[in-house]
Write a structure and sequence with these properties.
This is DUF1523 domain-containing protein. Keywords: Membrane, Transmembrane, Transmembrane helix. InterPro entries: Phage_phiNM3_A0EWY4. The chain is of the alpha+beta class. The protein has two domains: 125 residues, Beta Barrel (OB fold (Dihydrolipoamide Acetyltransferase, E2P)); 61 residues. The protein is 43% helix and 22% strand. It contains three helices and five strands, in the order H-E-E-E-H-E-E-H. A five-stranded antiparallel β-sheet has the order 3-2-1-4-5. The longest helix has 59 residues. It is elongated, with a radius of gyration of 29 Å.
């Protein structure tokens, strides 16, 4: 039971960590190399794509999606999708996809005359599953070593979450100590007593057989 308990809680917290890592905003310092639009046919990975732009047909099995190609200071490439989140999840209430694409196109630069920007995004990049992080905003920065800023929103959300989780754990612990543990102890004592009675009963039959 102890192994099952540990596997359950490890799995639970890994899923919670993955949820927050995917959903909470992150910032990358990059150089925009290109922007483009591509028709996407949604398949098994459709859960990792946002809904259609507000005002568009949300039932279509494919649609055009904006993309932003970038390169980090160390040379590795990162590609972002640029989709509205609208009123859906995650609750970024992003409605300015076209404006963001125009800003990204205006920020394009070459390696010889590099201009760096800070792109705020959420999500993961996975080449095997064709998953792209969704860009939320873009702003110009001084260079590749520019500060990303303190993630106050992430800190606030995580503090609130762990505070709620701790409050629930404390109340559950008190409830268990006051109600569940005494009941289990009473059941265990009753079973021990019944086993003792059964053993004594067997003992009397053995005594009769010896006589």
């Amino acid at each position: 039971m102890a192994i099952i308990k540990w596997v359950f809680w490890i799995t639970f917290w890994v899923l919670v960590g993955a949820f927050f890592h995917y959903t909470l905003p992150q910032v990358d310092i990059v150089r925009v190399t290109d922007t483009y639009e591509k028709r996407i046919d949604f398949g098994e990975n459709s859960i990792f794509w946002a809904q259609a732009d507000v005002g568009s047909d949300g039932t279509a099995v494919n649609r055009d999606v904006f993309f932003i190609q970038t390169r980090r200071a160390k040379g590795d490439v990162m590609v972002y999708r640029n989709e509205d989140t609208g009123w859906g999840w995650p609750p970024y209430f992003k409605f300015d996809t076209s404006n963001l694409q125009a800003e990204a196109a205006d920020a394009k630069s070459t390696g010889e005359a590099a201009k760096y920007v800070a792109i705020k995004h959420y999500g993961w990049r996975n080449e095997f599953l064709s998953i792209f992080p969704n860009a939320i905003s873009i702003r110009a920065v001084d260079g590749p070593d520019a500060a990303k800023g303190i993630p106050w929103l992430n800190i606030f959300i995580l503090v609130v979450f762990f505070a709620i989780a701790y409050a629930i754990w404390v109340r559950w612990r008190r409830f268990r100590m006051a109600r569940i543990d005494p009941t289990l102890e009473a059941i265990e004592d009753d079973l021990v007593e019944k086993r003792g009675r059964f053993s004594r009963w067997i003992g009397t039959w053995r005594a009769k057989d010896k006589t």
